[in-house]
Predict the 3D structure of the following.
Amino acid sequence: MRLYIHWPFCLARCAYCDFNTRVAARRVAVAYAHSLCLELALWREALPGRGGLRSLYLGGGTPSTMRGEEVAELLAYCRRLFPVRGDAEVTVEVNPATWKEDDFAAARRGGVNRVSIGVQSLDDRVLRVLGRPHGAGDAVAAVRRARRAGIAAVSLDMMFGLPLESGHRFTQDMERAIGLRPHHVSTYALSLSSRSPMGRLVSRGEFHMPEDDVVADEYREASRMLREAGYVRYEISNFCLPGYECRHNMAYWRREDYLGTGAGAHSLIAGWRFHNLESILAYNRRLHDGVLPVSGGGRLAAGEEKSERVMLGLRMARGVPERLLPQAARLADLEEYGLVRREGGRVRLTERGMLLSNPVIAELMPA
Ligand code: SF4
C-alpha cells in the first residue's frame, strides 16, 4: 500500500491558486496535526495486515511549513503504526521560502529520501506576478541545501503557459532549472480558475492567457530541452533521469492501492474510491469523536474501472495494453494522424498525442 498525507496550510496564497489550502495560525496547524495522528491510528485498526508501505508522500498545501524535525516526528509516528519497507520512497513537498539546511537534514534523518521543490519559475518578475512567497535565489538555495543534506532525489515543479507575454521566456527558465541537475522535473501548464485573484485579473482583461499554440510550443520546447539533457518523459508532465520516476505517483496512474489521509484526501483501496471531508474544522471534529472522516465514495463498476485504467494508463509513456481498447477503427484513425502508436501489443500517445491528450484520451475511452 501507499500512504498520502495532506497538509493543507501554506505560507501565503499564490495568486493563481484555488486549492483546498489556507494560511493558518500555528495553533490551527497543531490541532490539525493531532487530528492527522488520530486518523492514521484509526486506519491502522481498520486496515490491519496490508503489508509494508511502499511509498509515503507528504503533500499539500505546503508541508514544509512544518519544521524538518516535525516532519521527522510525523514520519516516526507513521512508522509505529504501519511497517515501512526498507526501500520505500518517502517524499515531502517543499516551498523554497521555507526550509533551512537543518530542516532538510532533520527530514533526511527522519527517512525522507525525496523532495519535490515548488520552483515554478526561476525569474523573479514571474514569481512576483504569480504571488509566490519566494525568489529565484531561494529556489536555487533550496536545491543546494537538499543535496548537501544528502536527500537522494530532488524534483522541481516548473510552470508554463503563463499570462505573461512581457519578456517571459519559459525556455530560459527551463535552461536554468536543467542547469541545477535535478533528478526529476514536473512541468505543468497553468490552469487558472476564475475564482483565483489572477483568474479575476484575466477576466477583467488585465492579463491575457496565451494562445493554445503558444502553450503547446512551450511544452514541446521544454520536452526537447529535457530530452537532450538526458531526461526521460515517463508521463505527460513528468521527466526524470533514468531510474528516478516518482514511484508514488506511478502507483496512482497504475491504479494501485493508496490511502489518502488529511482533509479532502482521496483513496483507492481494493476497488473502493473514497474521499475525506474537505473542511478542516469538520475533519477535526469527526476525528475527535473517534470517527473516520470519510465523506463519500463507493465501489467502481467494472466499466468505470476499465475507463480509469485507460484514462490514467495513457498518461504514461508506456501506454496501455491494446486489448483494453477495442475500438480498432478509432485507433487506426488516431494512428494515421500521428497521435498514438501501437507497438508490442501496447498503445501509447506520441509527442503530438500528449499535446492533445485530453481529446485523444476521450476518443479512446471504452464505450
Ligand atoms: S503553495 Fe501551492 S497550494 Fe499553497 S497557495 Fe501556492 S499554489 Fe496553492
Observations:
- The mean pLDDT is 94.
- The longest strand covers residues 84-94.
- Residues 174 and 254 are 28 Å apart (CA to CA).
